[in-house]
Amino acid sequence: xxxxxxxxxxxxxxxxxxxxxxxxxxxxxxxxxxxxxxxxxxxxxxxxxxxxxxxxxxxxxxxxxxxxxxxxxxxxxxxxxxxxxxxxxxxxxxxxxxxxxxxxxxxxxxxxxxxxxxxxxxxxxxxxxxxxxxxxxxxxxxxxxxxxxxxxxxxxxxxxxxxxxxxxxxxxxxxxxxxxxxxxxxxxxxxxxxxxxxxxxxxxxxx
Length: 207
Prior knowledge:
alpha/beta; Helicase, Ruva Protein, domain 3; Dna Topoisomerase Vi A Subunit, Chain: A, domain 2; five-stranded mixed sheet; 7 strands; elongated
């Protein structure tokens, strides 16, 4: 791709570094930005700066937040006895968009994946166990992707939480094996949350 301006080329390189954006799309976006006013460009760049410097992790559930504690954890109308465990913030957004879940969340920050060098200590598992000790939680929903890594993580968590007096459930398998929550349509995901099932350990091997 022959771009006559080094400045434009640098903008294209930066935009195309984002996932799912190729060089042609990056060029189209960069040219679109060129047509915007200085105020619009200033607002655009400022929002990117704020994204990096102002967003925090919720100190309770590790969801993204503008404050120390996120709006979900602060909401007095949420059920504090119902806790949904998810892989990352995209899953929080997916479940929230269904409008079917009224409890709280705990974001692990990933799943156990030895192939990627991610072990239990790399996730927010100890923080989860601390919440179980300090909060009055009656039910935990394991809303992890139905991949091998998600199932391995669910199995590991079930072992870690076996000493706690909580009802352990999982999303219904209307969600196909191998699916990641963020790509499931809202109706299917909502029904899977509402029609959740008791969690049963099906794996014969241990971690």
